[in-house]
Input
Amino acid sequence: MKKLGDFKTLEFRSGIATSRIEVKKDDDIKKEVRVAYPVSLKNGFVDLNTTKEIKCKTEIDEKKLTREGDIILSASMPYNAAYITKETSGLFVPSFCLLIRIKNSLEIDAKFLTAFINSDNFKEQAKELVSKTTTPMLSVSRLKEVQIPVFDIEKQREISLYCENVQKEEIIMKHIIDLEKEKLNVVLGGI
Output
């Protein structure tokens, strides 16, 4: 086991309150950005349908926007995380989220780390770390204290691929269940 903070290739950032950058009047717009809220983080991915575009009164520091290969996670329960793809890059990280950027993917695989953050192991550690605080929010300093199992990079990629397949199966199964419920409602509605 190794603390996340002990990985020198990981860069951690906390989000910023959207109220600090959002315009009040339309004539003050400098830039428009899409925001990923905690509710947007599902099954290891960002659900773009639940993101929101906001108009900004200032230019946004590129370090505050997601890049492909980053990980964004909710700083509050249930601590969901999402891997940032090419399609979800450029999202603004709000105050209820944290960002992890990997500077060297030979030490730790981003998809493996995303899978770990979405695991019960991570969630239990996070709950324990915030239980001693007045605000039950996961901070960067607390996040760095989380212990992660150490595997070589090939094993990490193998585990992350397995997790991706499980997540895809979960989405398919949910879709099947939704279709079956819809079918049942049609049958029962016809009585």
The mean pLDDT is 89.
